[in-house]
Write a structure and sequence with these properties.
The protein is an alpha+beta fold. It is built from twelve helices and seven strands. Strands 5-6-7 form a three-stranded mixed beta sheet. Strands 1-4 form a two-stranded antiparallel sheet. The chain has a two-stranded antiparallel ribbon with strand order 2-3. The N and C termini lie far apart (51 Å). Helices cover 43% and strands 15% of the residues.
Amino acid sequence: TGNIQYLLPLLVAVTAAKTVGNMFNDSIYHIQLHMKKIPFLEPAHGEPQEGSLDCGDIMASEVVTFERFEKVRLVEYALKSTHNGFPIVKLMDDKFGVQRRHFMGMIYRSQILTLLGRRVMYSEDEVENLKNRLVALQAGAEPGTSLDHQDDEVSDEQSDLDAAMRTYFHRHTFYNRTAETGAERVELIGLTEDEREMFIDLGPFMNISPMTVQKETSVWRAFKYFHTMGLRHITVVDEYNSVLGMLTRKDFVKTFEKHH
């Protein structure tokens, strides 16, 4: 009506109603989160407790990891799981001859689906050429420079792929993201047997600076990271930056339910 004289009384009434309602039960949206069993971290869960657990105590140790160049068949199989993020690792031997999964970055489910859907795949010979080029770049790279950003300029194809990854959920049913990234979506891509024998290059699109914690980090501190930064998962590494496990919101919820 354009009449603002009722604005202040309306704000007071809504604030009072919400305050009184919260004294008896949670909001309707909060209740729906629990009804749908969506892992939701309550602020009170982050209160430090005496003798609190470490991240190594609650992490999932069976982590699905990828190397930079992976066969499409293996990637397709991994996408049939419920994982949303996959650490990219480089297999390296330490000074004791023990093979470690050196953490390089993180790639997300929607990014991989975009690459598969657009058939960004390479034959075995093309992968060997790419690896040789990376070795040559490594020989001439400055210390501390990432190999995945050595090109003088980003190609139009990579820019287009990056834009498609960023807008993946904008172009699909926004209220049902699980259906758009689940196993059904993988089947809809329609990969052939020849395509499954090809390789995919995950390096140019991975996040090279994701959040990580060491296994000795307290659960309370890791919870603060999740709650303040809105994280879905954190990679747990050791002192050598090798992947040991993953932390998700479900791990926190299970732990809090067990200890409260």
